Amino acid sequence: MVRATLLVLGVLFLGSCVPANGPETVAVTAADSGRTFAMRVGDELVVTLDGNPSTGFDWEIATAPAVLTPTERVVTATGGALGAPVTVTYRFAASSAGRATLVLAYRRSWETVAPARVVELRLEVSAP
């Protein structure tokens, strides 16, 4: 009887030591445009896009939903030559629950025409 009690207490103790699921990272690219992603408040959305700002084109946030807070934008050269393509990475924190659409546009800032490319991501953010 004592062994059974100790076994049960040991299992309960070990179960309480397992960490709860922490924030997750949802990584997407332009190929994911049009898809819907489920997230929880506290999760991170990482959007990685190819571009070439030497042509005047650059990625910008066209529609920033209230459920996300932008945290970082990093541009990384993919080659060593002048005018080489780059990778643009946006990081967002899921800051509140709700449904929304994030729209990123690849365009020249001085032009008033439609963007050359658009990435549209639908988000369903739930409470943690």
Give the helix/strand layout:
Elements: H1 2-17, E1 25-29, E2 36-40, E3 44-51, E4 57-63, E5 68-77, E6 86-94, E7 98-108, E8 117-126
Characteristic terms for this protein:
single chain, 128 residues, mainly beta, 4-stranded mixed sheet, 12% helix, globular
Question: Can you describe what's shown?
Answer:
The chain has 128 residues and is mainly beta. It has one helix at residues 2-17; strands spanning 25-29, 36-40, 44-51, 57-63, 68-77, 86-94, 98-108, 117-126. The strands form 2 sheets. The protein has a 4-stranded mixed sheet, with no helix packed on it. A hairpin with an 8-residue loop joins strand 7 (98-108) and strand 8. The longest helix has 16 residues, at 2-17. The protein is globular, with a radius of gyration of 21 Å.
Helix content: 10-25%
Mean pLDDT level: 87
Structure class = mainly beta
**Are there runs of 5+ residues with pLDDT below 50, and where?**
2-19
- Counting DSSP H or I runs of 4 or more residues, the number of helices is 1
Rg over CA atoms: 21 Å
Distance between the termini: 40 Å
Reported for the largest beta sheet, the result is:
4 strands, mixed
General shape: globular
Q: Total number of β-strand segments?
A: 8
Brief synopsis:
With 128 residues, the protein is mainly beta.
